[in-house]
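Suppose you are handed a protein chain with no further information: no name, no annotation, nothing but its sequence. What can you learn? This example shows the usual starting point.
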Amino acid sequence: MVETYKEMFGQDVKVEAIHAGLECGIMISKLPGLDCVSFGPNIYNIHTTEEKLSISSTLIFNSSLEACAPTTVGLSSPSAGHFAIA
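A reasonable first move is to predict its three-dimensional structure. Written in structure tokens, the prediction is:
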């Protein structure tokens, strides 16, 4: 995914571990060997009345997901293997 992002947008992606990636740990514990990533758009003031979603980062997220999902899975159908997006 990091390589795909750089190819698409010409810059390195910021990779960091945050508390919101909990679902990946749960899925990996149930499916050992699963490659799992949690990513999404920028959201500010989460779980408050001031919560805001960055539309521009949502567009980047959607493009990245479309570009990575088929190659990450390597399958024409997610039902044919393990595929998880948290």
